[in-house]
Amino acid sequence: MATPHQGLSMSTSRDKILITGAGGMLGSYTDFGIQTTRDTLNVEDLAQVRVVFAKHKPSVIFHFAAATNLVECEKDPPGTYRANAVGTYNVALAAREVGAKLVYVSTSAVFDGKKEAPYVENDIPNPQNHYGHSKYMGELVVLGMLPDAIVARTCWMFGGGPDKDHKFIANILKQLEKSKIDVIGGKRGSPTYGKDFVETLVDLVEKGERGVFHVGNEGAPTRVDIAREIVKIAGAKTEIVEADAAVFEKQYPGAGARGNESIASTKITLRPWQEALQEYIGTEWKGLIK
Ligand SMILES: NC(=O)c1ccc[n+]([C@@H]2O[C@H](COP(=O)([O-])OP(=O)(O)OC[C@H]3O[C@@H](n4cnc5c(N)ncnc54)[C@H](OP(=O)(O)O)[C@@H]3O)[C@@H](O)[C@H]2O)c1
């Protein structure tokens, strides 16, 4: 017999997807389901998680809520573990109680960055900072408690537009009037459009998938490559100059220390990062680039 979350038509299953942390960047791409934010569902509060899940009876949970600011996570380890490890335990426990399929968003920060090639699903995690440890604990909890769950690891996610993008791409877009911008090169990642990521999660659920998936737009650029692509897409003349990563590491110890962060999948393929970036800038930043 099919479990309640397998083989549902998307109109039914999208309505019954409950999203935690829907007020964040990734939440901008879930215009469906039951949206919860810290105010309506604090994942650190087990009693509240149980009440909210029992009320809505979701068939699927997209668990986005997390402490995500790497610098803050290093400053406040207890708070980081409470949100990311204990919070995920609470969500997994309550999901099991209501029979919901859990989709947990994890990160390439579970890896140590020493591999030359992009990390694939069966590489062994070896986190190097509190954020990575806390997210890996979340993975272990989810996979240990819910054999039907999906763990979707991603990397360098972008999106949110002018209101919710507080990261690298917005930062570059806002400086394009300058003649030159210094950007730290060296390490590689997988820039991933939040919109593509959410569509992939929905697709995986629809197909009744389970287990660990690396969900990233194809490619493994450095931040210098990305900045140059932004300049090209925007039709700007700004020169991108590669800066010294050691300076950043001195300012924010631990936060930028890992090497390679890029991911690839042995199971699925998303479109190339350049194509996704072009769509993001062309739609969500249309008319806003000076
Ligand atoms: N962005 C990336 O590059 C990236 C890469 C890999 C994985 N991820 C994962 O993707 C997920 C979504 O990330 P994002 O980029 O959308 O981050 P985000 O913009 O920081 O969103 C996270 C949301 O979670 C909420 N939250 C934090 N603690 C909470 C709690 N105790 N209870 C309820 N809500 C809480 C935050 O609310 P407040 O604003 O009130 O704190 C925020 O709205 C996270 O699980 C993250 O670890 C992100």
Write the layout of secondary structure elements.
Layout: H1 10-15, E1 17-20, E2 34-35, H2 46-56, E3 60-63, H3 70-75, H4 77-98, E4 101-107, H5 130-145, E5 150-154, E6 157-158, H6 161-164, H7 168-173, E7 180-184, E8 192-193, H8 194-206, E9 211-214, H9 223-234, E10 239-243, H10 245-251, H11 273-284
Helix pairs in contact: 2-4, 4-5, 9-11
The structure holds NADP nicotinamide-adenine-dinucleotide phosphate.
Task: Give an overview of the whole structure.
Helices cover 40% and strands 14% of the residues. It is an alpha/beta fold and 290 residues long. Helix 2 (46-56) packs parallel to helix 4 (77-98). The longest helix is centred in the N-terminal third of the chain and has 22 residues, at 77-98. The model is unreliable at 1-9 (pLDDT under 50). The structure holds NADP nicotinamide-adenine-dinucleotide phosphate. Residues 20-21, 23-26, 38, 41-44, 64-68, 83, 87, 105, 107, 135, 154-157 line the site of NADP nicotinamide-adenine-dinucleotide phosphate.
